[in-house]
Write a structure and sequence with these properties.
By secondary structure, the protein is mainly α. The chain is built from three helices and no strands. The protein has a domain of 46 residues. Helix 1 packs antiparallel against helix 2, helix 1 packs across helix 3 and helix 2 packs across helix 3.
């Protein structure tokens, strides 16, 4: 009787913990609408809205700028 000497199977895929690629998250539509509405119509400051929502002030500023540009391109009044 022939006995085959087999080696231990090789683990091709090592189970590693995958780190998230980015810490960025998207704001919900209601939160974006509140932020833009409070700044444009309510006269709130960018910094106060950023602290209230938990975002940075530059992100809120970019959101308002992007929203006003899109509204102007679509010829919609805010």
């Amino acid at each position: 009787m022939s006995h085959l000497n087999r080696r231990k199977p090789y683990a091709y895929k090592v189970h590693k913990k995958v780190a998230p690629k980015t810490t960025r998250t998207e704001m919900p539509a209601v939160q974006r609408a509140f932020a833009v509405g409070a700044i444009i119509a309510g006269g709130a400051s960018h910094n106060s809205i950023a602290k209230l929502i938990g975002r940075d002030q530059s992100g809120i500023t970019k959101l308002v700028k992007r929203t006003t540009e899109r509204a102007a391109a679509s010829r919609v009044d805010l």
